[in-house]
Design brief:
- The protein is α+β, with helices and mostly antiparallel strands and about 100 residues long.
- About 15% of the residues lie in helices and about 25% in strands.
- It contains 1 helix and 9 strands, in the order βββββββββα.
- It has one helix spanning about 80-90; strands at about 10-15, 25, 35, 40-45, 45-50, 50, 55, 65, 70.
- The relative contact order is 0.16.
- The structure holds zinc ion.
- Zinc ion binds near residues 7, 9, 29, 30 and 32.
- Zinc ion binds near residues 4, 7, 9, 27 and 29.
Length: about 100
């Protein structure tokens, strides 16, 4: 991280902020703490009678491999809502989560 995404300052330090347990980039200008967390992937395995619905990847990585309909969670979306959206987007299927 070279610049603060909040104020644009290059005055960033990687420190453990007070009350935290991990090193974070903290802006020396606006004091914003920049959390870098993993992206959450959501999806589900649709089951109908004795069959499951899988998707074949059309892009890299793992082009051509089979996978459950899944993808990155969007901001403000629940894990279940994201899974339902991904199944609809990738397989054009409507599912119910039990
Ligand atoms: Zn800043």
């Amino acid at each position: 991280m070279n610049f603060c995404s909040h104020c644009g300052s290059a005055d960033l330090k990687k420190i453990v902020p007070p009350g935290d347990t991990h090193h974070r980039y903290v802006c020396g200008n606006c004091h914003t703490v920049h959390y870098q967390n993993p992206k959450v992937v959501t999806g589900c395995l649709p089951v109908w009678e004795d069959r499951v619905l899988l998707c074949r990847r059309a892009i890299e990585p793992a082009y051509g491999r089979w996978n459950i309909p899944s993808g990155y969670l969007e901001n403000g979306e629940s894990v279940v809502d994201g899974a339902l959206r991904e199944v609809r987007e990738e397989a054009e299927a409507g599912v119910r989560v039990d």
